[in-house]
Amino acid sequence: MVTIDAAKALSIDHERGSLEAGKMADIIFIDLFKPHLMPMNMPVYRVTCFANAGDVCMTMVGGQILMEDYRVISVDEGEILERVSEVAERTFERAGLRHLPDAPPTLWARSHY
Question: Where is the Amidohydrolase-related domain (predicted)?
Fold first, then answer.
């Protein structure tokens, strides 16, 4: 991501550095209408200090929308989640640590205060 001054210094301000038609754009849109971002005064402060990844509702990279309405539309999320589960399972098996993700049998047997 390049701002206009950096783009000018690199002589690429004709293609990057500002949000204009025909230029490359990397931008995120943040939903400010959330309890932890209220009240709406001081929006820059609220975004920089309190916003998090879960508040990003839309992402655009190189002018292409990758996420919209909180959903990644550029990849198949279900396929990735399945693959991650399979890889994690194989990794635990290969490392001899298959027992680690399981809760100990006594975890819920008695109170722990």
Answer: 1-65
Give me the domain span that covers residue 89.
75-102
Residue with tokens 């309890």: 35
Q: How many residues does the chain have?
A: 113
> Residue 1: pLDDT above 70?
no
Widest pairwise Cα distance in the chain = 67
64-68 and 71-72 strand pairing: antiparallel
CA dist., res. 51 & res. 27, Å (int): 15
Whether 112 is covered by a domain: the verdict is no
Contact 92, 100 (CB under 8 A): yes
| Token pair recorded at residue 87 | 């890889």
